[in-house]
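batch job 7 of whatever, protein = ABM domain-containing protein
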Amino acid sequence: MASEREPGAAKVGFVTFGVLRVDGPETASALVGVLTEEVTRWVRHVRGFVSSRVHVSTDGTTVINRGEWTDEEAYRTSFRENPSGGVLHALGTRPGVLAATVFSGAPAAAPLEGPEPDAQPGVVGVATRHLGGPASAGAVLDLLAKSGEWKRHHPGFISATPYVDKEGATFVNYPMWVNEVAYQAWMADPRISEGQEELARLEVAPPEYVLCRVAVQVDAA
């Protein structure tokens, strides 16, 4: 979306979503602190880093860190292979963390922007879909583009950015709204359920949907 990228900012070519399922809000809060400290201390200074946005689910049971990078090589050499990364690489083994997964991929299309593209997000969705491959991923993109005919005019909608992995097997959509009221009105629209039925035909496993609020964002130094 327009408000996430300042003019002249580095282009995002690779994205990760680190998902940590936890035993409750206290653990979630501690993880936000660790992520913020580590990203601020060293990650924001490495080559190819663009931003880190940390989210906590509305029920306090999930922490999601979206990392943006210029490209996959920068992510691998600057972060995955960086000797400073021990704390972040071990987050999944911390007390209170029940499960840890990481999605990595690239933006699959330009963001679909709503009537509030420059607003700060009050509510964010992270929707993960498991597909059969590139053909299914392409079909999902087509459905999302078609739904944009009405979504881009929905009050309180900020934007939605789709991401897909190399295999075309995992698809993550990242929609944002200005507040809970806008989100609830969105979900109440009958066109949402109709679209979900079409998407379900392309899936090989149940989708995962996490409703979040943004806890902190750290941009590149």
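notes: Residues 107-213 form a domain with the Alpha-Beta Plaits fold (CATH 3.30.70.100).
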